[in-house]
Design a protein that fits this description.
single chain, alpha/beta, Beta-Lactamase, Alpha-Beta Plaits, 4 domains, about 15% strand
C-alpha cells in the first residue's frame, strides 16, 4: 500500500508545486521529500525553544487559570514529539521520508490548532490585561511556523492560520480598542505570511534543485573525466605556472613511454623534439592562453610519434592563472597517413616519380625564375607498342616495363633535372641543367637509345622504344600549360613520322593541330551532309584478266577543303571513334552497290581495330546482308595485322564468327608485321594481300622477288588466294604471273572510281587493249 502511494506521489505533481510554479522531476521527488523533512526538523530546534519559552510564561503568569495545567501538558507533548522526530531522522529509509513527512504535517496542523485554542483560552480568561503579551506570543508562533513549514506551504498556512483564528476570536470577545487593533494586526500578519510562504517555498525548492543538478553534473563530469583518462585513447595533462607536469595519470605515463618513471615536476617542454611547434608551446606556457590542435613530436628511442595538444589556462578561486590544463591525443597514425596522402598526391605509386601535379608545379617555378637566355625545356614521351605489351603479356609485365623505363630515364638526366610520370606510359622531363638547345636534343636522343634496349623479365625479352617531343621556353612561351601542350604536339608529330625520333616543337605543328581539330569537327557531319563517297578499284584475275571483285575505298569531298585524303581523316576518325559510324555506312553502301553487279563480282571492305572492338559490328553486317539481299560470300572483310596485335583472342573469335556467316576474310599488307606467320597459323584466312612495298621493287630487287615467291608458295600450300597490291606496269604483272599469283590490283589496271563511272564493258577488253598497246610500244 505504501509503495503504491509513493509511486502515485512520484508520478503526480503536488498542488503546492503548481501554485509555486516549480517542477520537481519525478526522479527527484524522493530526494526532495528528504530535504523537506530535514528542513522542518532543523527549524524544529528554534520552534521547540519558543514553545518552551511560551510554556514557561504560561506556568508563571497564568498558573491561577484552571486550564493552565492542561495547556502546559499539551505543549510538553508537542515538544516531545518534535524531539523524537529529529532522533528518528538518521534511521529513515528511502521511502520512509514520505511517511515521516506525513507525520510532521499532521503534527504541524495539530500544533497550530493547539496553540490557536490555548492562546484563545488564555485571552478569554485573562481579559485585556494579558491581550498584548498573548498577541505577541501568537505572532511569534505564526512567524516561526511559517519559517518552519516553508517546504510544505499548505501545512504552514494551516498552522499559522489556526493560531491567528483562535487568537482573533478571543480578541474579538474582549472587545476593547487595544484588542481590536491586536486582532487586525494578527489577521494582517496572517495574510502577509500567506503571501510570503509560497515565495519562500519557491526559493527553497529552486535553490535545492539547482544544487542537486550541479552536484549530479559535477559527479558525472568527474566520472567521465576519470573514465576518459583511464579508458580513452586521449588523456588529460596539467602543468603549473612554471610548465612542470602536475598529477600525471597512468595513461599519461604510458603514452609518454615512461610507465615506470614519474613525470611529476618534469617540464612538459622536455618531452618533445625541438621544433617551431615546441617553441610555440613554450611561449603559451609562459603567457598562458587557450590553444587547440598543436602537434608536437615526442622524444622517443624508436619510431617517431606525435601528440596533438589542446588546453586553456587553469584559474584558481581567486581568479589567478596557475598554469594550463588540457587534453592530449596521439596523432601518429593520422600524421603518417597525412604524409602518405601528401606523397601520393605528388608522386606516382608505381615508379616513385613525381606525378603531373608536382611536375606542373616545378615547371611553373622554373619558368617564373627563368633568366634571359636560360634554357628551360620539356621532353614529352610515351612508349611504343606499350598497349600491345600490356595486353599480350599481362599487367605485371607492363608494370615492370614502366619501372625500368623510369629508372632508365632517371639514369640519363642530371640531379637538377626532373623526370615525372603522367599516367599510363606517358613520361615527361623538365630540363634546367642544359646550357644549349643542342644539349637538350642530345639528352632526348640518349633517352631514346636507352629505352630501345631490350627489357628482360623471367627469360622473356621485351622490345620497346619511344618517341620524344621537345618544347623550349622563350620570351613568348613562358606558360607551363602551353609548354607542355607544345611538347605534346611535337611528340604527336614524331609518332606520326614512324616514331623512334625526337622532334622540337615548331609553330607549324600548332597550325597542323588546328587543321586536325577542324577536320575532326567537320567529320561528324560529313555523313549527314553526303560528303562521304565510296570509290571502287578492281581486283583482276591474273590468269583470265577478268575482274573478280572490287575494293571499296572511302573518299571525303569536303565542301570547302575539297578532296581530303584518307590518310588524313581516317586516323582522326579512329582516334575519335567516328570510324564506327562511318564504317557502318561504308558496309551498307558497299553492299547496296554490289547488289547491282553481276553475281560473280564481290566487294571487299576494310575494317579498322576500332571497328573490331565495336559490339555492333556483327549486327550491322548481318542486318545489311539481310535487308539488301546480298549473299555473304560476295562480301570480303580486309583486316591488317594491327587488328590481331591488340586483343588477339577476342578478334580471332570475331573473325571465326564472320567465317561462320560465310563472309570471306583477307589479311591485308601481309609481310609488314613482325608475326605474320603466327597469324596465318592462328586463323585460316581466305586471302593474303601482298603489300605494295614488295611489289613496287620486284623488278629491281632480288630480295623482294624472294619474299613474294615465298609468300605465294606458302599461300598455295595453305589453300589461300593471293592478291598483289600496287601493280603499275606489265613487268611487275609478268613476274607475279610467273610466280603463280592469283589476283592483281593497281593503277596499271585502274584507279579507284566512283560507282557511277565503273566500266559497262568487261574490264578484260580494256585490259587486253592496254596490254597490246604496251607491247607494241616496247617492240
Amino acid at each position: 500500500m505504501l509503495k503504491r502511494r509513493v509511486q502515485r506521489l512520484l508520478q503526480s505533481r503536488p498542488r503546492e508545486y503548481r501554485l509555486a510554479q516549480i517542477d520537481v522531476p519525478p526522479a527527484h521527488r524522493n530526494w526532495f521529500a528528504r530535504e523537506t523533512v530535514n528542513h522542518i526538523l532543523r527549524i524544529s530546534i528554534v520552534s521547540e525553544l519558543l514553545n518552551a519559552g511560551i510554556l514557561f510564561v504560561i506556568a508563571t503568569q497564568f498558573a491561577s487559570i484552571a486550564l493552565s495545567l492542561a495547556l502546559l501538558s499539551g505543549g510538553l507533548v508537542l515538544i516531545c514529539i518534535s524531539i523524537a522526530s529529529r532522533r528518528r531522522l538518521a534511521a529513515l529509509g528511502s521511502t520512509r521520508h514520505f511517511r515521516e513527512l506525513a507525520k510532521l504535517k499532521l503534527t504541524a496542523v495539530i500544533g497550530g490548532l493547539y496553540w490557536g485554542v490555548a492562546i484563545g483560552v488564555l485571552m478569554a480568561t485573562g481579559g485585556s490585561t494579558y491581550a498584548g503579551v498573548l498577541t505577541l506570543m501568537a505572532a511569534c508562533l505564526m512567524i516561526i511556523g511559517c519559517i518552519k513549514y516553508i517546504s510544505v506551504p499548505y501545512v504552514g498556512v494551516a498552522n499559522f492560520v489556526s493560531i491567528a483564528c483562535g487568537s482573533s476570536f478571543a480578541l474579538a470577545e474582549i472587545g476593547t480598542k487595544v484588542s481590536v487593533i491586536s486582532m487586525i494586526l494578527l489577521l494582517s500578519l496572517a495574510i502577509t505570511l500567506y503571501s510570503t510562504i509560497f515565495y519562500l517555498f519557491y526559493t527553497f525548492a529552486t535553490r535545492r534543485l539547482r544544487t542537486r543538478v550541479l552536484k549530479e553534473t559535477k559527479d558525472t563530469v568527474e566520472l567521465l573525466l576519470k573514465d576518459f583518462d583511464e579508458q580513452g585513447s586521449d588523456w588529460l595533462w596539467e602543468v603549473d605556472s612554471d610548465g612542470l607536469i602536475v598529477r600525471p595519470s597512468h595513461r599519461f605515463h604510458e603514452a609518454a613511454g615512461r610507465p615506470d618513471a614519474s613525470l611529476s615536476r618534469i617540464s612538459l617542454i622536455d618531452l618533445f623534439v625541438s621544433s617551431p611547434e615546441r617553441d610555440r608551446l613554450q611561449h603559451i606556457i609562459q603567457k598562458p592562453e587557450a590553444f587547440r590542435g598543436l602537434v608536437v613530436e615526442l622524444k622517443t628511442e624508436g619510431a617517431p610519434r606525435w601528440w596533438s595538444l589542446s588546453g586553456r589556462p587553469n584559474v584558481n578561486k581567486f581568479s589567478e592563472t596557475v598554469g594550463l590544463r588540457g587534453v592530449a591525443t596521439d596523432t601518429t597514425d593520422a600524421k603518417q597517413a597525412s604524409a602518405k596522402i601528401a606523397y601520393m598526391a605528388h608522386y606516382d605509386g608505381l615508379t616513385d616519380l613525381p606525378n603531373r601535379a608536382l611536375f606542373n608545379e616545378k615547371l611553373s617555378r622554373a619558368l617564373a625564375r627563368r633568366q634571359p637566355n636560360q634554357i628551360v625545356a620539356v621532353l614529352y614521351l610515351d612508349l611504343d607498342r606499350f598497349k600491345s605489351i600490356n595486353d599480350a603479356m599481362g599487367h605485371d609485365m607492363g608494370d615492370h616495363v614502366l619501372k625500368v623505363t623510369a629508372d632508365r630515364i632517371n639514369a640519363n638526366i642530371s640531379n637538377i633535372d626532373l623526370a615525372a610520370r603522367f599516367g599510363g606510359d606517358e613520361f615527361a622531363v623538365l630540363v634546367t641543367s642544359a646550357t644549349t638547345r643542342e644539349e637538350v636534343v642530345r639528352l632526348a636522343l640518349d633517352i631514346i637509345e636507352s629505352l630501345s634496349e631490350p627489357i628482360m623479365l623471367d627469360s622473356q625479352q621485351i622490345n620497346s622504344g619511344t618517341s620524344i617531343g621537345i618544347a623550349f621556353a622563350d620570351e613568348e612561351n613562358t606558360n607551363a600549360e602551353d609548354l607542355l601542350k607544345h611538347a605534346d604536339l611535337a611528340l604527336y608529330d614524331a609518332k606520326s613520322r614512324g616514331g623512334h625520333i625526337a622532334l622540337t616543337f615548331h609553330p607549324k605543328m600548332y597550325e597542323a593541330m588546328l587543321v586536325k581539330r577542324a577536320i575532326e569537327a567537320d567529320l561528324g557531319a560529313a555523313i549527314l551532309q553526303n560528303e562521304l563517297e565510296l570509290y571502287y578499284q578492281p581486283l583482276i584475275c591474273i590468269k583470265t584478266n577478268e575482274t573478280v571483285a572490287y575494293e571499296a575505298l572511302l573518299r571525303w569531298n569536303h565542301k570547302t577543303r575539297g578532296q581530303i585524303q584518307p590518310s588524313v581523316f581516317i586516323p582522326i576518325a579512329e582516334e575519335t571513334g567516328l570510324i564506327v559510324q562511318i564504317g557502318e555506312w561504308v558496309i551498307r553502301s558497299a553492299l547496296a552497290e554490289v547488289a547491282k553487279w553481276p553475281e560473280h563480282l564481290s566487294v571487299s571492305v576494310n575494317l579498322s581495330p576500332v571497328q573490331m572492338r565495336s559490339p555492333n559490328i556483327i549486327p550491322t553486317i548481318v542486318n545489311a546482308l539481310a535487308s539488301i539481299g546480298v549473299s555473304p560470300d560476295r562480301l570480303e572483310i580486309e583486316i591488317t595485322e594491327s587488328v590481331l596485335m591488340n586483343n588477339s583472342e577476342s578478334n580471332l573469335a570475331l573473325l571465326h564468327r564472320f567465317k561462320s556467316l560465310g563472309i570471306r576474310i583477307s589479311l591485308d599488307d601481309f609481310g609488314t608485321g613482325y608475326s605474320s606467320l603466327n597469324y596465318l597459323r592462328s586463323f585460316p584466312f581466305d586471302k593474303i594481300k601482298i603489300d605494295r612495298c614488295f611489289v613496287e621493287d620486284i623488278a629491281e630487287r632480288a630480295d623482294c622477288q624472294a619474299i613474294i615467291h615465298a609468300v605465294l608458295s606458302l599461300a598455295t600450300s595453305l589453300n589461300m588466294t593471293t592478291t598483289a597490291e600496287g601493280i603499275e606496269n606489265e613487268e611487275q604483272l609478268a613476274l607475279l604471273r610467273a610466280d603463280g599469283c592469283d589476283q592483281a590490283q593497281g593503277y596499271f589496271f585502274s584507279r579507284p572510281m566512283p560507282a557511277n563511272t565503273l566500266p559497262q564493258k568487261p574490264l578484260i577488253e580494256t585490259l587486253e587493249k592496254r596490254l597490246r598497246s604496251v607491247r607494241s610500244r616496247a617492240a
